[in-house]
């Protein structure tokens, strides 16, 4: 059986890490007798250069016709002069909305071999760490009304506003994703909001509590986002599944990435109803290291493992990738972004991809 994957390499280190990921997928296909068909499309700065648009219609159409989407990264200073409506980052918002990818899953896992790379004390991470952040992805302030008002009073200057807006439907569906996942994990959900200040957060908290009634086995905690940010570094092991809004999830997942030791290790999945999803590393396009073979491809490789598991239903194949990454680390290999000792072997992007593929 063949699987059609839309590949959006994007900008900066995106094409480099995606290339190594496809190498690993090809090895998985060979080992397990699977056929992966790749349809390469443009997005972000690369699309602007080729078509003038950050998100061509053809890219969306091909993505909708595929079984899953694999994304590298977008953006870079080269396109800073683009109008806000056509910046590479706008393509991310656009494709998430077009594909109705409302649930963003961002695991933060501390690998045993990388505990020393974490900025947290080893005793805080004793026994490992496995947090899953479930971020609402198509609502909130990023998709609300935005306006910059011209200056009418020199003493006040320009005035800008951005609207945070959520419906109960949007909150219910992301809450159900979080509770369903918690049932397969530690049966604990922490809902993060700012209900002491924001009306949208008060609706969020009330709606999540209503959904929780359908999951009596799952413990529900509520935290204000400022406290949650503090608790992530003070006592991260208290968390299992965190569910939160678009902007809070964006910030907290990046904070969680640093707990693991490197943002280059963290994958993510963006899902809609059913099995369709888009998979991408948490890190950005890092144009400063593009072409230097310093990029860590592991986050993208692990994103492909999530793709196999969530969208294609290939759990054994996903396990094979995750086991190969573990084997790579246990063998003492490190990419330049990971803390290395004299005993470790530091390898570049392509060599890391080759080694992980060989370990499938």
Structure overview:
This protein is an alpha/beta fold. It folds into 2 domains: 1-105 and 267-360, 3-Layer(aba) Sandwich (Isopropylmalate Dehydrogenase), CATH 3.40.718.10; 119-259, 3-Layer(aba) Sandwich (Isopropylmalate Dehydrogenase). Helices cover 38% and strands 21% of the residues. It is built from 11 helices and 14 strands. The protein has helices spanning 14-32, 45-51, 57-64, 88-98, 168-183, 199-212, 225-234, 246-259, 298-310, 315-330, 349-358, and strands at residues 2-10, 35-40, 68-73, 103-110, 129-136, 146-149, 159-162, 188-193, 219-224, 241-244, 267-271, 277-281, 333-334, 345-346. A 10-stranded mixed beta sheet has the order 2-1-3-12-11-4-5-10-8-9, with helices on both faces. α1 (14-32) packs parallel to α11 (349-358), α7 (225-234) packs parallel to α8 (246-259) and α10 (315-330) crosses α11 (349-358). The longest helix has 19 residues, at 14-32. It is globular, with a radius of gyration of 20 Å.
List how many beta strands DSSP finds. 14
Q: Give the domain tally.
A: 2
Question: Per DSSP, what share of the residues sits in E-state strands of 2 or more residues?
Answer: 15-25%
Provide mean pLDDT, rounded.
Answer: 95
Strand order of the largest sheet: 2-1-3-12-11-4-5-10-8-9
What gap, in angstroms, lies between the N and C termini? 20 Å
Q: Structural class of the secondary elements? A: alpha/beta
Give Rg in angstroms.
Answer: 20 Å
Q: Tell me the name of the CATH homologous superfamily of the largest domain.
A: Isopropylmalate Dehydrogenase
| CATH architectural group of the largest domain | 3-Layer(aba) Sandwich
**Shape field:** globular
Largest sheet: 10 strands, mixed
**Low-pLDDT regions:** none
Count of individual helical segments: 11
What is the top-level CATH class of the largest domain? Alpha Beta
């Amino acid at each position: 059986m063949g699987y059609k994957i839309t590949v959006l390499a994007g900008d900066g280190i995106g094409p480099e890490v995606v290339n190594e990921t496809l190498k690993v997928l090809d090895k998985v296909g060979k080992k397990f007798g699977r056929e992966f068909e790749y349809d390469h499309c443009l997005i972000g700065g690369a699309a602007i250069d080729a078509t003038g648009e950050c998100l061509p219609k053809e890219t969306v159409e091909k993505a909708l016709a595929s079984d899953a989407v694999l994304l590298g990264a977008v953006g870079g200073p080269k396109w800073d002069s683009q109008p806000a409506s056509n910046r590479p980052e706008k393509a991310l918002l656009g494709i998430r909305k077009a594909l109705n990818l409302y649930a963003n899953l961002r695991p933060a896992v501390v690998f045993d071999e990388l505990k020393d790379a974490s900025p947290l004390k080893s005793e805080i991470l004793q026994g490992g760490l496995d947090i899953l952040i479930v971020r609402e992805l198509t609502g909130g302030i990023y998709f609300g009304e935005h306006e910059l008002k011209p200056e009418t009073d020199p003493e006040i200057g320009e005035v800008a506003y951005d609207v945070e807006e959520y419906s109960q439907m949007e909150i219910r569906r992301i809450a159900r994703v979080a509770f369903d996942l918690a049932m397969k994990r530690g049966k604990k959900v922490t809902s993060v909001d700012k209900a002491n200040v924001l009306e949208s957060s008060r609706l969020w908290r009330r709606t999540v509590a209503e959904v929780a009634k359908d999951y009596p086995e799952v413990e529900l905690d509520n935290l204000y986002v400022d406290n949650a940010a503090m608790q992530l570094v003070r006592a991260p092991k208290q968390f299992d599944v965190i569910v939160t809004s678009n902007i809070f999830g964006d910030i907290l997942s990046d904070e969680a990435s640093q707990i693991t030791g490197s943002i280059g290790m963290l994958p993510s999945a963006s899902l809609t109803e059913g099995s369709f999803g888009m998979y991408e590393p948490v890190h950005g396009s890092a144009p400063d290291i593009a072409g230097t073979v310093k990029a860590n491809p592991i986050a993208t490789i692990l994103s492909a493992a999530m793709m196999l598991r969530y969208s294609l239903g290939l759990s054994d194949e996903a396990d094979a990738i995750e086991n190969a990454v573990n084997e790579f680390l246990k063998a003492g290999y490190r990419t330049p972004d990971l803390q290395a000792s004299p005993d470790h072997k530091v390898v570049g992007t392509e060599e890391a991809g080759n080694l992980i593929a060989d370990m499938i």
